[in-house]
Write a structure and sequence with these properties.
The chain is built from four helices and no strands. With 80 residues, it is mainly α. Helix 1 crosses helix 2 and helix 1 packs across helix 3. It is extended and about 50 Å long.
């Protein structure tokens, strides 16, 4: 299994309170980098939305979304 995917699954499990103790140290270490923190924030946002909480994504989310949509548009135009 891909290490990054495994870490993201562990971060998700930690956010849900379902992470086994044997994975805790490695998962907490993953939260020390920007990608780990972003995954943590994303899983909490997803959880809030699933529970019906009124959580609004911040400006950074909107900027990342706009950049990804622009990249998809460019890729689609190049493929056409």
């Amino acid at each position: 299994m891909d290490t990054l995917k495994s870490l993201h699954e562990n971060i998700s499990a930690l956010a849900d309170g379902e992470l086994p103790d044997s994975e805790l140290e490695l998962t907490l270490a993953a939260l020390n980098d920007a990608e780990g923190r972003l995954a943590w924030q994303t899983y909490h946002l997803i959880g809030d939305m699933l529970r019906g909480a009124e959580a609004l994504p911040g400006a950074a989310f909107a900027a990342r979304l706009a950049a990804r949509l622009a990249a998809e548009d460019e890729a689609a135009a190049a493929a056409a």
